[in-house]
């Protein structure tokens, strides 16, 4: 289980002053906490691509922002990531909620299909966004790790350290709904 309160505490410990994103069901508990928090400002956007541009601008202005979006929105925001955060070498940490992960994991854990088994994309028991999330991160050169439970919380500070060291966006794939 992943507790939103503990995620927020880790973000604060990393010096985050802003969280920018578009809440979904998996991140709703975190967004609710952020709305009532005085030390970290939450900025909700209308499209996920805006989150990368806004968080990058906040960094340029001396703030420490994190992005929270769903994998579907992350996939939609590729040009904002490339054209802003990557091009400008912004050390940005993105928590990406991983819609479809559990279904995909159950289906592929026993026998991993070929990466481009196109029939998988039309299967009703799989989410096509989940199928392309990790390959897209790899193709875009975004290092990533998994945030699956409270035991993984140290990965948040590790992601911030790596982003700072490399001056590059780093992602954490949130595989469970935060409670």
Describe the structure.
The protein is an alpha/beta fold and 179 residues long. The chain has a single domain (4-174), classed as 3-Layer(aba) Sandwich (Rossmann fold), CATH 3.40.50.970. Helices cover 44% and strands 16% of the residues. The chain contains eight helices and six strands, in the order H-E-H-E-H-E-H-H-E-H-H-E-H-E. It has helices spanning 4-13, 28-35, 48-60, 71-76, 78-86, 101-108, 128-139, 154-166; strands spanning 18-21, 41-44, 65-70, 93-97, 144-147, 170-174. Strands 2-1-3-4-6-5 form a six-stranded parallel β-sheet, sandwiched between helices. Helix 8 links the parallel strand 5 and strand 6. Helix 1 (4-13) crosses helix 2.
Please describe the structure with a list of short key phrases separated by commas or semicolons.
single chain; 6 strands; 8 helices; Rossmann fold; 179 residues; alpha/beta; 44% helix; 6-stranded parallel β-sheet
Question: What is this structure, in a nutshell?
Answer:
The protein has 179 residues and is of the alpha/beta class.
What order do the helices and strands come in, and which of them pair?
Elements: H1 4-13, E1 18-21, H2 28-35, E2 41-44, H3 48-60, E3 65-70, H4 71-76, H5 78-86, E4 93-97, H6 101-108, H7 128-139, E5 144-147, H8 154-166, E6 170-174
Parallel strand pairs: 1-2, 1-3, 3-4, 4-6, 5-6
User: Which geometry do the CA atoms define?
Assistant: globular
Largest sheet: 6 strands, parallel
What is the H/E order?
A: HEHEHEHHEHHEHE
Remind me, CATH topology?
Rossmann fold
Question: Which strand-content bin applies to the residues?
Answer: 15-25%
Low-confidence stretches: none
Number of helices: 8
Helical fraction equals: 40-55%
Strand tally, please? 6
Average pLDDT: 93
CATH superfamily: Thiamin diphosphate (ThDP)-binding fold, Pyr/PP domains
Across the major sheet, the strand order is 2-1-3-4-6-5
CATH architecture: 3-Layer(aba) Sandwich
Distance between the termini: 8 Å
Count of distinct structural domains: 1
Name the structural class: alpha/beta
């Amino acid at each position: 289980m992943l507790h939103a309160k503990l995620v927020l505490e880790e973000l604060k410990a990393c010096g985050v002053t802003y969280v920018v994103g578009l809440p979904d069901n998996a991140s709703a508990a975190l967004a609710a906490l952020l709305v009532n928090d005085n030390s970290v400002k939450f900025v909700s956007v209308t499209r996920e691509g805006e989150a990368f541009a806004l968080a990058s601008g906040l960094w340029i202005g001396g703030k420490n922002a994190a992005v929270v979006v769903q994998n579907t929105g992350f996939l939609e925001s590729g040009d904002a990531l490339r054209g802003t955060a990557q091009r400008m070498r912004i050390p940005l940490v993105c928590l990406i909620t991983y819609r479809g992960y559990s279904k995909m994991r159950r289906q592929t854990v026993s026998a991993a299909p070929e990466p481009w088994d196109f029939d998988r994309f039309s299967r009703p028991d799989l989410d096509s966004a989940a199928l392309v999330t990790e390959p897209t991160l790899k193709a875009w050169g975004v290092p990533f790790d998994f945030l699956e439970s409270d035991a993984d919380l140290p990965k948040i500070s590790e992601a911030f350290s790596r982003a700072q060291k490399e001056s590059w966006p780093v992602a954490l794939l949130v595989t469970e709904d935060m409670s």
